[in-house]
Amino acid sequence: MNIDLYEQDFYRWTMSNARLLRQGRFSEIDAENIAEELESMGRRERRALTSRLAVLLAHLIKWELQPSLRSRSWKYTVKEQRRKIAKLLGENPGFKSDLESMVSEAYEDAFFIVLKETELEEEALPSVCPYSFEQAMEDDFWPGEEA
Fold first, then answer.
1. What is the pLDDT, as a whole number, of residue 5?
2. SS3 string of 6-39?
3. Among 2, 17, 22, 86, which residue has the least CB neighbours within 10 Å?
4. Are 57 and 103 spatial neighbours (Cβ–Cβ below 8 Å)?
5. pLDDT value, residue 33
């Protein structure tokens, strides 16, 4: 019945399984679908972090390569992404061991964000991310500016 409920009424399925878990009625839970949903939740969190990293990296690239177009909006987008990335990492410290690959993955998206939002040509952009995660997250890191 629980498996059918999963297909027919997801909300009721979640509430039913939460109640069963709290009551310790483990033999009655829909373990396979619960495991699938938990994995899906983890992937969503990873996608959220990677997406925020892509926006951050895109704005840092634009900041560095288009100094004459720097704006207050770009600056506050960078600050906002840094803050929200830090918050996501605080809530999900398990991502810290995978940050290098996540930055690389995010840079692929950032590359295309920059191409879409600017007049820059592909050849003008670095083929790999020019910033480390630590640099990108540093409050006083603004590439292309004198220290």
1. 87
2. HHHCHHHHHHHHHHHHHCCCHHHCCHHHHHHHHH
3. 22
4. yes
5. 93
Can you list the residues of the chain whose pLDDT is less than 70? 1-3, 146-147
Residue 145's pLDDT is 82
Q: Give the per-residue pLDDT at 7.
A: 87
Tokens representing 93 are 């410290």
Q: Are 99 and 133 in contact (CB under 8 A)?
A: yes
Dihedral sign, Cα of residue 34, residue 89, residue 75, residue 70? negative
- Delimit the domains of the chain by residue range: 43-137
The CA distance from 137 to 106, in Å, is: 14
- Determine the Cα–Cα distance for residues 6 and 105; give it in Å rounded to an integer: 33
